[in-house]
Amino acid sequence: MTGIVISMADRRLPGRFGRVLPVALMMCCLLCRTAAAETITLYYWGAHLVIQDALADFERLHDGRDGNPRIVVISGQSAEVDTDGDSQRLLCSIAGGDPADVVVFARHAVGEWAARGAFEPLQPFIERDLIENPDDPFLIRREDFWEPCWEEATYEGQLYALPTDTDNRALYYNQDLLERRADELIAVGCVDPEDPTRVGPPRTWEQLRAAAEILTEYDAQGRLLRVGFIPNYGNSWLYLYGWLNGGRYLSPDGQTCTLDSPEIVEALVYMTEMYEALGGAEAVYAFQSTMQGGDLDPFLSDKVAMKIDGNWFLPLIANHRQDMRFGVALPPAPEGMPQFGWCGGWSYVIPRGSSNPEAAWKLAKYLVSHRANRIRLEEQLRIARGQGTVFIPPFHARKDVTQWQLDELIYNDPNMSQRFKDAARVFADSLPISRFRPVTPVGQLLWNEHIRAMEAGIFMRFEPTDVRRNAELALARSTRMVQRELDRIYKPVERPVLSWPPIVAAYALLLAAAFLVMVMYFGRKRTERGYFRQEFRAGYAFASPWFIGFAVFGGGPLVFSIFMSFCSYDVFSPPQFVGLANYAEMLFDDPLFYKSLANTLFMALGIPLGMAVSMGMALLLSYEVKGMPVYRTFFYLPAIMPAVAASLLWIWIFNPEEGVLNALLANAGIQGPAWLNSQTWSKPALILMMLWSAGGGMIVWLAGIKGIPRHLYEAAEIDGAGIFSRFWNVTVPMLTPYIFFNLIMGLIGTFQIFTQAYVMTQGGPVDSTLFYVYHLFNN
Fold it and tell me: Helices 281-288 and 262-277: crossing angle, nearest 10°?
């Protein structure tokens, strides 16, 4: 084909046709060669919009011209709803047998799902490439990556993910605020290591506690105006304090939870005592609730003097307060202990069931290469310049990529302030020694329980007068929860494994039995004659689509969930029959089950209050006056407002420092509580919020009131009954069906409370808003 094109080009045909024809034939030749090559389609799930140029470059490298298959990449949505390992999209696609081929995945969750067989192991690909293709420009070598990033993507000696973007954490401090109290801070040891006569950031826990108290300021009423340091604000958590104190959260073999070890207890005691020194966790959390992000971040507005946060905070400073005199140092540690941060980040995984693992491996190792990241960063830089913002690149799990990013975009940039260069160097230099979340099948549970224990500790839930004893009890309870799951994984009990055909057959048998009962019922109806027998048949014929739909889409999941409650099932493997073990665990081994029930029953106290408010509204709106339909509409509107939007609105209303509700109480001479940040007031706050949407019940009451005959009121009035007597002796008895209906609907709604707690409080503080459905969702 190419020879024909060349010969025709040599003939030099006259006119425009002679110039166009050879080019057109050459393009046809190339298209034919490309079409002749096998085409592989890969599906990529990732959150990075700027990855498109890199994907296009990968397609050019694999266009089929070299005789290898042509690869086309189709990009889609993120695999995760958020960054907390909530990977239902990916897990459902794997269970359904149609996953994406390469997926961006939170690195801390890799071990948990690798243990369940969700991902392809990558170690065989790496070992094969090292032997068969050592000159591959995209070759993966362990020594090219930061050790913590590689280890976090490894489970039981096998690499299951290629690390990509990473981060690290360190102590940010406001130099101006430190210098304002320089003499006091120097006296407690907060000095510059290079010049002991100058103030510097704290390096030990004792210095940090003293500096936090010195830099904290209060108003005349004793409320916080500025906080020197908040132990769990920014991104520190108990994990970091435990590591800094020499603690571990799992034994070396990963089979024993050591969350309640003496080192972790001491770390939680330290955090609790610091909160107590600042006025208590409730007061500090109330102060935190007023904080916002972006240019209103409290560190940028001098409301917080120091915080532990990630390198991702540097762009916020650069774009919102570039002239700020700030510094970055390693997090303070106990006296004599090393200082370090902790890292996290993202990775590329190949899900089990990928249509073409070989091509997916080519894409994954390309995406972590220097070439791909250079393309991605150049696009990010163009976007930042187009928006007029300062671009500070994220760190990468590869050493060479990170070094290139820092040299090219930070260290060698003459327009970059020295403060940002020094800060980036602190984060980068400490990456090799940073810690990372434990790689374990119970990673998410361990994280959740460590947060639960931390909150129980700083809020003094178990022993209000003994900090250490309270910390021990909180950590011991969470340790039991994690250890129980570890024992289930590493010390399994032999149980019968069920296969799907018998389960499906059992459900089909159940449907057949139900159908047989209906046939027998219709057979009995044959004794009836005439019009009514025909109507019976027609009625059931018209209702049959609903019956069939319920049997398949409603009854099926209902029966399945009941059956699964007697099994152990993780979606990826066949269920194991465990009998009543799940129920026994719920009733006897799960303290949160009774806590969630108690919280839910407490919310039931709001049912009569809501019924009274909605009935009162209905009585007022039952009068026929001009414009009443408009008033009824206004009162009903909150009932149709989306729950998430309403929750966000009420977060601001309940804000203890700047909220409308506490401002109104202050005008009446009442100091409002912390509401959502208080164990005592969090549930009453949600009850108060639900009264706002009482317009839904008001419609039902209004219909009932309108249906009461007027002559009953007239007769009662003739007998001398007053307004309250008429209400009690006429209205209430006539509304008893509506009372019963609203009571039942209120109970149903109470046991379905989820959205408000999920959006507003995340079940806290200290599980005070962990309701039954929320606990069910978590499990």
Answer: 70
Please give the structure tokens belonging to residue 185.
């801070």
The residue type found at 620 is: L
Residue partners of 94: CB distance under 8 A and separation at least 6: 118, 351, 352, 353, 572
Nearest to 646 by CA among 694, 698, 697, 699: 694
CA distances from 266 to 121, 242, 466, 469 (A): 39, 8, 13, 11
Q: Return d(Cα 287, Cα 291) in angstroms, integer.
A: 7
Residues linked to residue 71 through DSSP beta bridges, in sequence order: 40
Return d(Cα 727, Cα 739) in angstroms, integer. 14
CB–CB of 340/244 below 8 Å? yes
Q: Residue with structure tokens 């210098």?
A: 179
Mean pLDDT by 10 residues, the chain (779 residues): 39 43 49 62 80 91 88 79 60 84 92 91 94 92 96 94 95 96 94 90 96 93 89 92 96 94 97 93 84 75 93 93 93 96 94 93 95 91 88 93 93 92 95 95 93 94 93 96 93 82 76 75 58 66 82 79 85 84 89 92 92 90 85 87 89 86 88 87 91 88 90 87 88 91 91 90 89 88
DSSP state of 292: -
C-alpha 99/C-alpha 350 separation (Å) is 9
In angstroms, how far is CA 95 from the centroid of its own chain? 21
- Please give the pLDDT value at position 572: 77
Selection from 636, 738, 606 nearest residue 696 by Cα? 636
* CA–CA separation, 34 and 399 (whole Å): 37
Of the candidates 662, 653, 648, 617, the residue with the CA atom closest to the CA atom of residue 635: 617
pLDDT at site 223: 84
Helices then strands (H, E): number in the chain? 37, 17
Residue 630 Cα distances to 46, 134, 332, 732, angstroms: 48, 77, 61, 26
Which of 121, 153, 304 shows the shortest CA–CA distance to 216?
A: 304
What pLDDT score was predicted for residue 19?
46
The predicted pLDDT at position 524 comes to 61
pLDDT at position 80 is 57
pLDDT of residue 514: 74
- In this structure, what are the phi and psi dihedrals at residue 408, rounded to the nearest 5 degrees? -75, -40
DSSP codes, 709-744: -HHHHHHHHHTT--HHHHIIIIIHHHTHHHHHHHHH
Distances (CA, A) of 702 to 1, 48, 620, 708: 84, 52, 9, 10
Check residue 292 and give its pLDDT: 66
- Distance, CA of 572 to CA of 99 (rounded, Å): 13
CA distance 68 to 62: 8
- Write the DSSP assignment of 94-160 as a string of letters: HHTT---SEEEEEGGGHHHHHTTT-B---HHHHHHHHHH-TT-TT---GGGB-HHHHHHTEETTEE-
Q: How far apart are CA 271 and CA 450, in angstroms?
A: 13
pLDDT at 35: 47
Are 235 and 218 in contact, with CB atoms under 8 Å apart? no
Count of residues making up the chain: 779
Q: How many CB atoms neighbour CB 9 within 10 A?
A: 16
Strand partners, 74: 43
Let me know: does 441 contact 116? Beta carbons within 8 Å: yes
**Tell me, what's the pLDDT at 295?**
66
**pTM for this structure?**
0.85
Q: How far apart are CA 394 and CA 380, in angstroms?
A: 11
Parallel, antiparallel or unpaired: strands 224-234 and 345-349: unpaired
C-alpha to C-alpha distance for 391 and 393, rounded to whole angstroms: 6
How far is it, in rounded angstroms, from Cα 709 to Cα 725? Answer: 16
Distances (CA, A) of 694 to 292, 640, 706, 752, 754: 31, 11, 18, 16, 18
Distance CA 297, CA 143 (A): 38
Helix (H, G, I), strand (E, B) or coil at 662: helix
* Angstrom distance (rounded) from CA 112 to CA 85: 9
